[in-house]
Amino acid sequence: MDQSMRFALGSIIIGILVFSLKYAAFVLTGSIAFYSDALETSINIASAIAAAGALYLARKPADHNHPFGHYKAEYFAAVLEGVLIVLAAVLILRKAYMGLTEPYELEFNLQGIGMNLLSSIINCIWAMALMRVGRKHRSPALQADARHIMTDVYTSGGVLVGIAAVWVTGWQIFDPLLAAIVAVNIMWSGWKLMRESVGGLMDEAAPEEEQEELRVLISKFGEGALEAHDLRTRHAGHVTFVEFHLVVPGEMTVLDAHAICDRIEEGIGEKMPGARVTIHVEPENHAKHSGIVVL
């Protein structure tokens, strides 16, 4: 089992632990804000399960029906997580509305508040570790899970501030109002996550800084060629697909041109592990005199 999968499964365990603490805080205090916080964490558990399933599927080797692999499965998990986040926000808004229309008594239980604070500390530590591993392995599913958990941390911080405000002022209305604010923040987080994930499904190009790094590598390792043009990139999970045309002298042998391509592929692979490079070799009369000049 690789590191990505271990962290994906760890998210499920951490999610269950944090949900238990937050739900206990809600039971002890009766706070709708604590309820909204616990409900968001329950979504974390569902999304962690989806992320683990997507990582398992994405690691399956290419087959006859999927010659480019199963890498995009991670984006489907991220989209599902975004949908679940928005659903959680709708449920919280409903609970907040009920709290505004049906007055209730909020109990200030220090044990419950302490449980919520402890859950936030656990979440914060785990989210930072999860983001580090997600970036290392270029996993959209793990990074989406980490962002969601960190949003949960911010939400919990706001909830604790709101509970303190109720305690100081005695205005119970702060509790459902804070829950509504939390719901709007969660909904915005879910929308951003879905937008980014759909971009991956639609084969968006790699970030400009990554493309610039590719141009530098092609120029550096393409000695013997004349130029490269029509660079195209796309991400599929942790894999970056790279395609471009390489112009070589017309009299160059196939063997020599192939050696240049191998050198470029190895150079890109060292700097960008997991890259899949496709090179179309052309004679010099196809040069566009633009794009990447080979050093």
Automatic annotation (TrEMBL):
Give the way it sits in the membrane: Multi-pass membrane protein
| Keywords noted in UniProt | Membrane, Transmembrane, Transmembrane helix, Transport
InterPro entries in the cross-refs? Cation_efflux, Cation_efflux_CTD, Cation_efflux_CTD_sf, Cation_efflux_TM, Cation_efflux_TMD_sf, CDF_Transporter
Per the UniProt entry, the signal peptide is none
Question: Taking every annotated instance into account, which residue ranges of this chain make up the domain Cation efflux protein cytoplasmic?
Answer: 207-284
State its location(s).
Answer: Membrane
**Transmembrane parts of this sequence:** 7-35, 41-58, 73-93, 113-133, 153-171
Check the record and name the Gene3D superfamilies matching this protein.
Cation efflux protein transmembrane domain, Cation efflux protein, cytoplasmic domain
Looking at the record, the residues that make up the Cation efflux protein transmembrane domain are: 11-202
Write down the NCBIfam families for this protein, in alphabetical order. CDF
Similarity field: Belongs to the cation diffusion facilitator (CDF) transporter (TC 2.A.4) family.
Annotated protein name in UniProt: Cadmium transporter
Q: What is the organism field in this record?
A: Pseudovibrio japonicus
Q: What is the lineage of its organism?
A: Bacteria, Pseudomonadati, Pseudomonadota, Alphaproteobacteria, Hyphomicrobiales
